[in-house]
């Protein structure tokens, strides 16, 4: 399923202000082969490894320019899914490899999106000219009646597995906590603790509080209520025999100096009892590179350098 919250502020300046903050949970079968976040072909992402001959699909990725793509599935009855539909996992890579603007890519995607099973696509594109930064946040859902991409102004947004105008209760709850957390940490620009901010953002993603019943969720699914209620929390954990739930937490911070921090905490070993699962954290810091059309020097901290995380 997955859930995502996004903040954009193109006017951010310096290391204590943030132009982009993205947090994401990936929900998936525990036994589906997956690799942890790593740089590959200019894209930082975890990857689906189910099919060795067609690997590399992902749920969230960022490139060296700070462009971001997140893919969420839409909750649908199994009877409405097409087993022959093309894989949705390559959509993220397709955008990041294309070099296209977010809106252009989304508009082109809308022309053949009906061939896929349900998805919600969130794209971020950024550019800078003469010190004027522009951040485009675009979302597109292929199960929406209007079938057009939505452009979002700077601010905070939540995205889930339903139409944006009909959010699940857990998306509303998570968005409220996201906004409160950012207000707490960003109100004093001179004293922002990145480790504390990351920990509080992780707390949102790890929240097991259920928000059920949920009429919108129930209207999109044929699952019985006793199962569906397990999907109504930000952190999802189905009963043990289903072996399905939240497998990774991803956090992306891009500050006003174009320095990016990417943190992924992922489930790397799942025994019979998911409560005993082994989690591992990857941490990357890198300076964003200018787009080919931009004329500005590369940030001083350029490079992709994983570092040990010591605050989790």
Automatic annotation (TrEMBL):
<dbReference type="GO" id="GO:0009306">
    <property type="term" value="P:protein secretion"/>
</dbReference>
<dbReference type="GO" id="GO:0005794">
    <property type="term" value="C:Golgi apparatus"/>
</dbReference>
<dbReference type="GO" id="GO:0007030">
    <property type="term" value="P:Golgi organization"/>
</dbReference>
<dbReference type="InterPro" id="IPR008551">
    <property type="entry name" value="TANGO2"/>
</dbReference>
<protein>
    <submittedName>
        <fullName>Uncharacterized protein</fullName>
    </submittedName>
</protein>
<feature type="region of interest" description="Disordered">
    <location>
        <begin position="292"/>
        <end position="312"/>
    </location>
</feature>
<dbReference type="Pfam" id="PF05742">
    <property type="entry name" value="TANGO2"/>
</dbReference>
């Amino acid at each position: 399923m997955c859930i995502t919250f996004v903040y954009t502020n193109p006017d951010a300046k310096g290391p204590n202000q943030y132009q982009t903050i993205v947090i994401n949970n990936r929900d998936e079968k525990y036994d589906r082969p997956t690799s942890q976040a790593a740089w590959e072909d200019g894209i930082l992402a975890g990857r689906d490894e189910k099919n060795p001959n067609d690997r590399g699909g992902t749920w969230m990725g960022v490139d060296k320019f700070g462009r971001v793509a997140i893919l969420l599935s839409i909750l649908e009855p199994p009877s409405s899914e097409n087993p022959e539909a093309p894989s949705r996992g390559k959509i993220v890579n397709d955008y990041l490899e294309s070099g296209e603007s977010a809106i252009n890519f989304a508009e082109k995607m809308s022309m053949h999106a009906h061939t896929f099973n349900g998805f919600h696509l969130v794209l971020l594109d950024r550019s800078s000219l003469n010190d004027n930064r522009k951040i485009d946040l675009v979302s597109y859902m292929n199960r929406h009646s209007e079938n057009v991409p939505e452009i979002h102004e700077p601010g905070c947004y939540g995205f889930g597995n339903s139409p944006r105008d009909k959010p699940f209760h857990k998306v509303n709850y998570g968005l409220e906590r996201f906004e409160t957390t950012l207000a707490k940490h960003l109100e004093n620009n001179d004293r922002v603790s990145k480790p504390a901010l990351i920990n509080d953002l992780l707390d949102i993603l790890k929240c097991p509080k259920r928000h059920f019943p949920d009429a919108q969720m129930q209207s999109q699914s044929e699952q019985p209520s006793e199962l569906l209620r397990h999907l109504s929390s930000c952190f999802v954990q189905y009963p043990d025999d289903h072996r399905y739930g939240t497998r990774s937490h991803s956090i992306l911070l891009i500050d006003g100096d174009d320095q990016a921090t990417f943190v992924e905490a992922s489930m790397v070993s799942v025994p019979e009892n998911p409560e005993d699962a082994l989690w591992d954290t990857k941490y990357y810091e890198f300076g964003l590179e200018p787009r080919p059309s931009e004329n500005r020097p590369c940030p001083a901290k350029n490079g992709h350098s994983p570092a040990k995380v010591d605050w989790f």
